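Troubleshooting: if your tokenizer reports a length mismatch, compare your output against this known-good record of 150 residues.
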Amino acid sequence: MNTLDRINERILRELSSDGRISNAELALRVGLSPSACLRRVQELERSGVISGYRAVLNKNELGVGCVAYVMVGLSNHTKDSQLAFEAAMAIAHQVVECHNITGSYEYLIRVETSDLNTYKNFHTEVLGTLAQVTSISTYVVMESTKDQRS
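Known-good structure output:
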């Protein structure tokens, strides 16, 4: 699907805010018949514009009390060094996002832990033990006034 018309944009906006909305309700909100709406949603799924649906979790209820964004610099820029770092992040349950970025650092990771002491342990026992890591800069989230993932 190359372009999105206004109706498809409205469908995507509605599904983004409530992925469990019924097709009948979605059709009503976007001004289509249920069958036409279902065809459009199926085409958005087939074309890959809609890649899946997920549950939005309440992090507080799950015991996440500390969220940090961590900038990580590597000692060298070889593919082996990157792969080793990415493999370590893939198995670290505290890391919920890992992005290879441009700029002064090689990686930006999002870390979620129960509290600051648990983050400190991750910082020391996970990041601090990786030979390829040369610098770490942590930004602890105090409050999120806008987060479209929730």
